[in-house]
Known about the structure:
By secondary structure, this protein is α/β, with parallel strands linked by helices. Helices cover 30% and strands 16% of the residues. Strands 9-2-1-12-11-10 form a six-stranded mixed beta sheet.
Amino acid sequence: MIDYVIVGAGSAGCVLANRLVDKGYRVTVLEAGGSDARTEVRIPAAFTKLFHGECDWGYRTVPQPSLFHRALYWPRARMLGGCSSMNAQMWYPGFPADYDGWASAGATGWDWNTLKPYLSRIEHGRNGDGGTGLHIEPVRDPNPSTRAFLNACERSGVPRLGASATRTGGYSLTPTTQRLGRRFSAADGYLRPAQKNTRLDVITNALVRRVLFEGTRAVGVEYRDGDGQLRKLRVAREVILSSGAVNSPQLLLLSGVGDPEALRRSGIDVVLSLPGVGKNLQDHLMTAVIAECPKPVTLVAARASCASSCRRRGTSRPTWARPRSSSARAPSSPSRTSSSSSRRCRSRITAW
Ligand SMILES: Cc1cc2nc3c(=O)[nH]c(=O)nc-3n(C[C@H](O)[C@H](O)[C@H](O)COP(=O)(O)OP(=O)(O)OC[C@H]3O[C@@H](n4cnc5c(N)ncnc54)[C@H](O)[C@@H]3O)c2cc1C
């Protein structure tokens, strides 16, 4: 029997698999998605091409009262590496005050001083001592508009912060989780090195449907494999849910752990009353700044230039350079669809 089953080979699942196998345990990772071997995963700026495709769960939020009841598109990756294979690769470990806030709210052990060595281990595993970790590097070739923006910040007297700044209120060029200009995901940094070990089994296209319990003890999982077969997997030690901020609580609810009333209404037998499960999820908001760019330095210009050189060579355009079909386009916010803004903007930033 295996020791641990890890549900989800995303950022957290890949690290856990690596560390547990390293300690001598037998581990099976079940990932609902498939391989991450795609051009759009490797090319740093092509990640939005993965939106709404087979590597994206493609969620929408319920209408948000604080956003004039808009429902937002919410990308979540479904493949090896999870969102680390689809994210924007900005490496910011966060500010001490964020972590200390969690600790003072009751999350013992999550304060900055306790976590700092772990963050440092992520950063220095690959770059430093050759162990496992992420590869962090500066943007190799910042876009001229990025340089212009940062220069403008400097001239306006905004403080310049180092890449590992411990305070907010300034500007800096974002370090990236890339290696030689290509995405470097948690699957690259942690899962693949661990796969050399026979104690690790990674099963893709395996959708976990529920956690199996004996009393209130989790003893395994039930999953549907790539051929549509329902399978059960029992573990000697623990079931680890690392299925992301949306799917982990969903899996708990499907398994009977949550608000008893809500579970009964959905016809799910209650295993454990834990009313907080699936509630109070908060995500950071991001505001895209849209500006007219008079020079042909944007991704839109790059795509157009790629299209014309492909036409000249008589080759077909790579998928990242193809325009999105209107049915697959991310829904825009009202401000972006207003006719005045679309007339003014030659360059758009896709939001998520
Ligand atoms: C578009 C985008 C841009 C982002 N940009 C940045 C950025 O620049 N910098 C940054 O620090 N963060 C960024 N993030 C956030 C960051 O990537 C995530 O917070 C992080 O990857 C989440 O890790 P996780 O392990 O919690 O979940 P995930 O990485 O989402 O992994 C969850 C995995 O579980 C699998 N799974 C889910 N349900 C099941 C099931 N029932 N059975 C089996 N498998 C299942 C999923 O398919 C997925 O692979 C971004 C995220 C997105 C989506």
